[in-house]
Recover the amino acids of this structure.
């Protein structure tokens, strides 16, 4: 399928994904490490939708999940729609939680580039994907034993007992809702200290982009105790060390991508939602039902997962069983 123009992609975000109505307050957030074309296109699309639009550019955070400056957080809480086209995700910040409590609809688009707005992934029928997203969420809800394997070497066992999966549907049309865009995924916070095995990132990762050599993490009692690989593994280790917190090493998330038009291209907001991929994350999971608060959240994408949930096959080689 052909991609979109920059303007058409921005309109999809504003009109379809956010459902912006005339007169609504829309805040477009960006930072100085991003291409200004993205924020400009989103701002113009909001103006075209007859919204009261504001575009704010801030400095990028030093770690993957930095709180925005206080004035920006106040603007977020006063907005009806917040679009975060930033270097790092805003989804896990306290500022977003406060804004959502006040009714803001939040769309997180970390690492968004002009190519993201042009991507076929944004042309997905997000409404039509909702039943499949809900089905996968139901299959994972409260699972006591989840086994995840992949051809790249991933073999991880985890528990979701007492945990309810969340969904990134690509749509944030109701007050207080939040999603990634064009990300479509079901995500869950594994029970801390119960995740065991080897996680091999052979797709892409937050901040790192597409990995040239697999990054291997040895996981014991819910924590990454060893990081192996080449240059990307060294860069990931440096980010974890810079966080200066044991909580940064906790396996915080397990998720499955469900957008059939997304591809692994090196931009995490598309990569993690690509159908046929899974991802784990290290760091904070307090925004979606976990108990680990951390100064970072780093997503690690792997390809062609096979997932068994309490003895039942949910996905094989990246394809959902039964479609």
């Amino acid at each position: 399928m052909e991609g979109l123009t920059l303007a058409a992609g921005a309109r999809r975000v504003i009109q379809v994904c956010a459902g912006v109505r005339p007169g609504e307050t829309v805040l477009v957030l960006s930072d100085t490490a991003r291409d200004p074309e993205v924020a400009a296109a989103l701002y113009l699309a909001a103006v075209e939708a007859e919204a009261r639009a504001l575009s704010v550019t801030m400095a990028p955070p030093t770690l993957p999940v930095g709180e925005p400056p206080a004035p920006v957080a106040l603007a977020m809480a006063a907005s009806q729609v917040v679009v975060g086209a930033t270097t790092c995700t805003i989804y896990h910040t306290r500022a977003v939680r406060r804004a959502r409590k006040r009714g803001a609809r939040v769309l997180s688009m970390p690492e968004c580039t002009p190519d993201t707005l042009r991507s076929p992934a944004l042309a997905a029928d997000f409404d039509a994907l909702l039943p499949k997203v809900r089905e996968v969420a139901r299959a994972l809800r409260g699972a006591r034993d989840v086994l995840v394997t992949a051809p790249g070497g991933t073999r991880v066992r985890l528990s979701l007992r007492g945990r309810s999966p969340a969904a990134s549907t690509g749509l944030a049309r109701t007050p207080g809702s939040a999603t990634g865009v064009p990300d479509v995924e079901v995500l869950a916070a594994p029970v801390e200290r119960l995740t065991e095995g080897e996680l091999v990132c052979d797709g892409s990762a937050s901040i790192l982009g597409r990995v040239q050599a697999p990054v291997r993490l040895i996981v014991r009692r819910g924590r990454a105790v060893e990081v192996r690989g080449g240059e990307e593994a060294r860069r990931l280790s440096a980010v974890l060390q810079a966080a200066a917190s044991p909580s940064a090493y906790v396996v915080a998330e397990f998720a499955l991508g469900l957008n059939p038009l997304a591809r692994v291209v090196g931009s995490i907001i598309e990569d993690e939602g690509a159908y046929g991929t899974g991802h784990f994350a290290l760091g904070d999971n307090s925004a979606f039902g976990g108990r680990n608060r951390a100064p970072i959240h780093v997503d690690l994408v792997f390809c062609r997962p096979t997932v068994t949930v309490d003895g039942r096959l949910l996905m094989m080689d990246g394809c959902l069983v039964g479609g």
